[in-house]
From TrEMBL:
Coiled coil: none
Residue ranges crossing the lipid bilayer per the database entry: 442-462
Transmembrane keyword on record: yes
Cellular component aspect of the GO annotation: plasma membrane
Per-repeat ranges for TPR: 154-187
Name under which the protein is recorded: diguanylate cyclase
Pfam families in the record: GGDEF, TPR_12
Catalytic activity line of the entry: 2 GTP = 3',3'-c-di-GMP + 2 diphosphate
Domain GGDEF: 511-649
Keywords: Membrane, TPR repeat, Transmembrane, Transmembrane helix
Record-level Gene Ontology MF annotations: diguanylate cyclase activity
Protein's GO biological process: cell adhesion involved in single-species biofilm formation; negative regulation of bacterial-type flagellum-dependent cell motility
Top-level taxonomy: Bacteria, Pseudomonadati, Pseudomonadota, Gammaproteobacteria, Oceanospirillales
The keyword Oxidoreductase is assigned to this record: no
Natural source organism: Pleionea mediterranea
Length: 683
């Protein structure tokens, strides 16, 4: 149909019949008049485009093209958008210029944003900023040679920030928003400033800093009021209510709970009673959603039920399956409160299947929490545990996927430091990462992410908490990449292992504990040559081989980077050597297959066996022993790598000798020379 339109537009005789209106003001009028009716705006833009082509007014033609495409994206009509984009591209081919290319790509970024394809958005957005050499934004002016509006560049930065937020790269997102904010402020684009304040608020809410979220959201509300941006005002008010609800849920004292609850209620009722809300059906639904939620949570089932029925009406014919499922889950909550377990469980189960089919894992996680909670209330502990298992599995899966995406994002920025920081942050904060992941995505489409938090909190209140905490605990002991223990895990268990050995010594048993540090050889070179992903796979395989070469009762942990530690029981020196040999062989005796290629990977090993001092060290520090093992590792590295070195005590009997060596009062070399320590090494 559009193709037909273009053909008829190029008909010159038609051009002569068209009135030569002032297209620019026509465009502005259309934008003002049809601000709230996308269909009419679409029609007007089509006409304006047609007239502009006939008048050969390329400037207006392009604006109409761009706005119409944007309009289709806002309306989520992606097929029609693609058709229209094709028109825009053909326009570009005819009037090839860098500015048009920029705006076409900006449209594509908008599409990726609406389709939640955050990774592509970041890649293409970065490429766009680079292509247009937007390095020193402070130098860029609206009068630059491309005459790309500076705020359009800020829009791109803002989009990248939203995508990063979507993927859980919260620090980067804040950085982008701050950058965009500075540009909008400089250009005096107040509405955009308000939008960015709102974005900064949502990131803060996602990481659980509700006070900052509320502060930024307030600023956004203030500006929206001054600028008379009703949509922005309502949206922010809905957000503000949800932040208050979250604050209420995490407050421990009754006074604060009441305060935040009342704040939320008054905001929601204020907006609900505003006639202008009718123009914004999506926000109206959000407001009704939170009102329903608030009253159900109060235990006021009558009011909750009545708002629920309004909510259903408000989303009738909207055909948004995802939103509908979420509303149904509110209904399930109501059913549970009324004791109708089976129907509630059916709803949750149905929602779960839907989310899993559509890969909406965040929501699936929340629904699984509901299912755990519901089955627990039903006293069906077996089912509850089943759901709990599903929950933990899914959480691990999501976590890994997100981690991979975050890595890709960071690689895109080619900022290794930031990337490692992120990995470390993610790995060490499994629990908070889980919350962040669960909170992901939803803000971008609706202000319901706080529901995650709220449902989580209600559910915690209903005592399922302790079971999950156990699982969280387990997960927080795991290294996210290799799935073996992490430092925390090692710290938690090593004391117990030492105590066992000490007790054995008291019984005159010769049981010892070998403390072993392993470090992959030339790993940096491997990373540099084959890439970080391949390096990651080496780490995973390396850890797996270590795991299968030790006994189940031994401790294995990733100490950091490409360093691992093992603590295993041994009896005499020969057995210790055999034990370490076995581990080294597991690594270097057969190649690693990474991405279909063979690689020889080796490692160096440093070890000590405890008790290191046969007669002293009543209260030994395992950290000192580990430091000594590190010296042994250093020696193994220095004497050629792919080997091991074990430090044995031969002469020291003083209580504080080990610490003295570590503290360099007596250097390790000296101790070796004077044979206080013996180094036994691989052949
Ligand atoms: N792929 C990947 N690399 C990592 C990870 N953590 C640390 N590294 C890399 O491991 C490398 C460690 O390098 P170095 O400490 O210089 O040691 P090396 O190259 O192994 O050399 P030697 O230990 O002396 O044999 C660095 O390049 C880190 O970036 C990770 O999680 N994944």
């Amino acid at each position: 149909m559009l193709a037909g339109l273009i053909v008829s537009l190029s008909n010159a005789s038609l051009a002569q019949q068209m009135p030569n209106a002032d297209l620019s003001s026509e465009l502005n009028t259309a934008l003002e008049e049809h601000e709230n009716s996308p269909d009419q705006l679409a029609q007007s833009l089509k006409f304006i485009y047609a007239k502009a082509i006939l008048d050969n007014n390329l400037y207006i033609a392009e604006q109409a093209l761009y706005l119409r495409a944007l309009n289709l994206l806002y309306a989520q009509q992606f097929d029609e958008y693609q058709n229209w984009l094709a028109v825009y591209k053909s326009f570009y081919r005819q009037h090839n210029n860098a500015k048009t290319k920029f705006y076409i790509e900006k449209l594509e970024l908008t599409r990726l944003f609406y389709q939640l394809d955050s990774l592509s958005l970041i890649q293409r957005g970065e490429a766009l900023l680079q292509e247009y050499n937007v390095q020193d934004l402070s130098e860029k002016t609206d009068q630059g040679e491309l005459s790309i509006h500076i705020t359009d560049i800020a829009d791109v930065i803002n989009f990248i920030g939203l995508a990063e937020q979507d993927l859980g790269s919260y620090d980067s997102a804040i950085e982008r928003f701050t950058n965009a904010l500075e540009i909008y402020e400089r250009s005096g684009d107040k509405e955009k400033v308000a939008v960015v304040y709102g974005n900064i608020a949502t990131v803060n809410a996602a990481i659980g800093d509700l006070d900052t979220a509320m502060e930024y959201n307030e600023k956004s509300i203030e500006i929206s009021l001054v600028e008379e941006s009703i949509y922005g005002y309502f949206q922010n008010m809905a957000n503000q209510a949800s932040y208050n609800i979250s604050k209420k849920n995490i407050s421990s004292d009754g006074e604060s709970k009441k305060f935040y609850r009342n704040q939320a209620e008054s905001i929601l009722l204020d907006v609900k009673n505003d006639d202008r809300l009718e123009q914004y059906p999506r926000i109206k639904s959000d407001i009704l959603y939170w009102l329903t939620y608030l009253y159900l949570d109060d235990g006021n089932l009558t009011l909750g039920e009545s708002y629920l029925s309004d909510l259903y009406k408000s989303i009738e014919n909207r055909g948004e399956q995802g939103y509908l499922k979420q509303v149904k889950e509110l209904e399930a909550y109501l059913l549970l409160e009324k004791g109708n377990f089976n129907k509630a469980l059916d709803i949750y189960q149905d929602a779960l299947s839907f989310y899993l089919d559509n890969k909406k894992y965040d929501k699936a996680l929340v629904t699984l929490q509901d299912l755990i909670w519901a089955t627990e209330r039903q006293q069906d502990h077996e089912k509850s545990i089943d759901y709990l298992k599903q929950y933990v599995d899914l959480m691990g899966q999501v976590f890994n996927e997100k981690r991979a995406q975050v890595l890709a994002v960071e690689q895109e920025k080619n900022n290794a430091k930031l990337r490692e920081h992120k990995i470390a942050l993610l790995a060490e904060q499994n629990r908070s990462a889980e919350l962040k992941i669960a909170n992901r995505n939803l803000w971008l489409k609706m202000s319901s992410v706080i529901a995650v938090l709220i449902i989580l909190i209600i559910w915690l209140r209903l005592r399922v908490k302790h079971k999950l905490s156990e699982q969280y605990q387990k997960m927080s002991y795991k290294d996210a990449l290799t799935n073996v223990g992490n430092r925390l895990f090692f710290h938690e268990h090593i004391e117990r292992e030492l105590a066992k050995v000490l007790r054995a010594r008291d019984r005159q048993s010769d049981q010892r504990l070998a403390l072993i540090i392993l470090d992959i050889d030339h790993f940096k070179a491997f990373n540099d040559q084959y890439g970080h992903d391949a390096g990651d796979r080496v780490l995973i395989e390396f850890a797996a081989r270590l795991n299968s070469s030790i006994r189940e009762t031994d401790l294995l942990a990733r100490w950091g980077g490409e360093e691992f530690v093992i603590a295993g029981n041994v009896s005499n020196q020969q057995e210790t050597s055999n034990y370490i040999n076995r581990i080294l062989t597991a690594i270097n005796s057969k190649p690693f297959y990474i991405a279909g290629k063979k690689h020889s990977i080796s490692c160096s090993i440093g070890a000590v066996a405890y008790p290191f001092f046969t007669e002293a060290e009543k209260e030994p520090k395992w950290t000192s022993l580990l430091t000594l093992a590190d010296f042994a590792l250093y020696r193994a590295k220095n004497t050629g790598r792919n080997r091991w070195c074990l430090f044995e005590n031969t002469g020291i009997k003083q209580h504080d000798s080990l610490q003295a060596i570590i503290d360099q009062k007596v250097s390790v070399e000296q101790a070796l020379l004077s044979k206080q320590i013996t180094a036994i090494e691989s052949e």
